[in-house]
Design a protein that fits this description.
Blueprint: H1 31-34, E1 57-59, H2 61-67, E2 70-75, H3 85-98, E3 103-107, H4 111-123, E4 126-132, H5 138-146, E5 150-154, H6 158-171, E6 175-176, H7 182-188, H8 190-198, E7 205-209, H9 214-225, E8 231-237, H10 242-245, H11 267-276, E9 280-284, H12 286-299, H13 306-318, E10 325-330, H14 338-343, H15 356-364
The structure holds ligand F0G.
Ligand F0G binds near residues 112, 209, 214 and 305.
Amino acid sequence: MSETPPVFSEVPRVPLPRVEGAAFSGVHVPLIERYHERLPFEPGDKLVSLQEGSTPLLRAPVISEIVGATVRLKLEGANPTGSFKDRGMTCALSAAVRDGAEAVICASTGNTAASAAAYAARAGITCAVIVPEGKIAQGKMAQTLMHGARVISLAGNFDQALTLVRELTATRPIVLVNSVSDYRIEGQKTAAFEIHEALDGELQALCIPVGNAGNITSYWRGFSEMGAAPRMLGFQAEGAAPLVEGRIIENPETVASAIRIGNPVRWEDAMAAATDSRGAIRVVSDAEILTAYRLLASREGMFCEPASAASVAGLLKYGAEGAEQVVCVLTGRGLKDPETALANNDGRVIQCVAETAAIEEAVLGDP
Ligand code: F0G
């Protein structure tokens, strides 16, 4: 344990003002309703929503102390299916239904699949997902199956799955809901709006994991629309870092299965986001990701999935570089990937018989 004291908030001494229609007034407004003026929908359009968006922006006192800046965590795991994908999916599915689609499909490392399956279930249309065999976290598989999607386990990786669904949707009447779709980017840009509003435009750097590179593209579009230009600092896992190495990685590998991607579809957009914002795309190792993953859970009380921890791993590795206000995007919930959590913690489970003396020893005895 370091010396950093815990930071507590206080019960307000005066009643909080209630702002009509505001997301934080206690009424949760679905994302497309909140930002309809900046999204490609018309008044009266039917929406497929699970009340996504308006996620918390949580102060991270321990990480702030380490890097010497005010660091906040954008908790995208607080979205309905536990990841940021819901922001894009409410738009993709609303558009699909509006345009008369009967089925949607995606390739996925897990979260897109879970989100597409949930929104398709809500919309009452068919969903198929193609996932790399043995490489998606259990929570995501459980969600996708529960929502009734057709799950195809591909003997291949994410990049191959994406190539195949792109081919399929070019000739068949099935709507592709990967971040190739501009609706996905449009929906996801709203996270940048929320951060911009919450910090009054004071943000200087945004740290974000990069896989297929849709999300960094979305954030940059969102900030640009607000006239803001925080540095976009994207982080890829060492074994899956095509944007850093400047070449397609044929067999990407990383413990962060969500970002195990060797040929991102938004390659040029992500590079433009980094360049235009005077940011960078950099690499973090699996060990650095797991260190940040454990630190977030054990010191900040925030359990995210390994890919999400890449944003904090990058900040810890490269520092705040003069930025005073930093946001790290935690893209998905820790519960998504119980296997990685169980394999990477210092805890232990104490077996105990149902007797008072044994319980006393188990609770109070030497650890
Ligand atoms: N973090 C998580 C938890 C993700 O699931 C993903 C991507 C990313 C970060 C990277 O975002 O692709 O926009 O650069 N997951 C996709 C999926 C690929 O299929 O769920 P990106």
